Amino acid sequence: MDDLQIIADKIRTMEIRGAGRIAVAASAALRDYAKTLRSLNIEEFNRNIDEAAKTLVDTRPTAVSLPNAVALTKRHSSTNVYDAIDEIVSNSDEFIKNAEEALGKIGRIGAERIHDGDVIMTHCNSHAAISIIKTAFDQGKNISVIATESRPRRQGFITIRELNDYGIPTTLIVDSAVRLTMKEVDLVVVGADSISVNGALINKIGTSQLAMAAQEARRNLIVAAETYKFSPRTLLGEMVEIEDRGSEEVIDPEILEELPNVKVRNPAFDVTPAEYIDLIITEVGALPPAMAYTIIKDHLGLEMLP
After folding, report:
1. Within this chain, do residues 115 and 77 fall inside the same structural domain, yes or no?
2. Catalytic member of 193, 270, 278, 298
3. Less CB within 10 Å around the terminal CB: N or C of the chain?
4. Where is the signal peptide (predicted)?
5. Is 124 a catalytic residue?
6. What is the percent of the chain with per-residue pLDDT over 70, rounded to a whole number?
7. Domain end position, chosen among 51, 85, 102
8. Domain residues for 181?
9. Is the pLDDT of residue 47 over 70?
10. pTM for the complete prediction?
């Protein structure tokens, strides 16, 4: 289980980051671990797979792509280990293939919402959102991007480098400049860590700030999200847990030691209500937030519920 633990640690410490990348890495790790369990009987095999799945899922509580990927990968109906491994390997290979193809589909569907001359604001670092932007650029549209810094981890720096290397004119702003800058923007495009059954978006902290500023300025906000980022458990009324990360991401621990009356909160995500979202762009089409239940039922399956 050493290799799987390494992947889990990389997800926990954000060496592997981004909801889609986390999901693919976890699926591959579980698949490869299953291959090492051929000598076990089916009861021992299932117990080990369940323990490994929990190890992966517990690393990041908010990104629903992680438990969805693990659940889709590990489920099997076999009564012997060899067949169970074959099912898990097939599940993982299919999941990873679909995840890679989804980005291209989301890019093509989302690019239809971008017009020549548009200025697009984005937040954090989302492969799905960037796929839309790059596809619009590839179509010859004269676009530019305003990207937020995305503190405290500054994932926006990854975004601006990626867009720069692609040749897309990009401006970096600090997070607190969103409202001031929104008047220059034509469209906001963000990714997703989770989408609940009521269409609410859980994404990088600061996303709701963009959404509120876009609403005030009468700018559309679209969310780019693969279908595996929708949360089946919210059908049961369960709230998506918002991850709190360590204070060391925000302030030097030595400085904090000098401030005994100060504590630091570092929530990694926030919630954007469905009414602030114009469309969710998935690999199966552009959908209003109200169709979240349909995505969960038809593309994830209600059997994923506990």
Report:
1. no
2. 193
3. C
4. none
5. yes
6. 98
7. 102
8. 106-304
9. yes
10. 0.90
Does the annotation flag 263 for ligand binding? no
Query: 305 pLDDT exceeds 90?
Result: no
Task: Say if residue 108 carries a ligand binding annotation.
Answer: no
Given the residues 9, 93, 124, 175, select the one marked as catalytic: 124
225 close to 203: Cβ distance less than 8 angstroms: no
Question: Are 140 and 279 contained in the same domain?
Answer: yes
Q: Residue 280 belongs to a domain with what CATH number?
A: 3.40.50.10470
Question: Is the pLDDT confidence value at 304 over 70?
Answer: no
* Number of structural domains in the chain: 2
| Average pLDDT over every residue of 76-95 | 96
Same domain, 136 and 68: no
Q: Is 204 annotated as a binding residue?
A: yes
- Residue 88: give its domain's CATH number: 1.20.120.420
Per-residue pLDDT tens over the stretch 26-40: 999 999 999 999 999
